[in-house]
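Predict structure. Chain length: 80.
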Amino acid sequence: MRIVIGNLPDDVTEDGIREALSAFAPVDAIHLVQESGAPSAVIEMEMTRAQADALAKRIQGRSYQGRALRAWVPLMDWKN
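Prediction complete.
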């Protein structure tokens, strides 16, 4: 499943995200998106949709380097 995390700090790194999420679940892959505004990350993890929804709710609003995170599960789990 994929979870999108938004409102990340400008200097965010994949390693920083992986470390921050290590308490929640093992991360398979991270794709940073830095097109405009605050960076976002698409996180890939082996879990069910229900588990991904629950994890997104746990991440939502948490502070990361002074920023309140936004987290959600895309309506469709697209494949590259």
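Summary: The mean pLDDT is 89.
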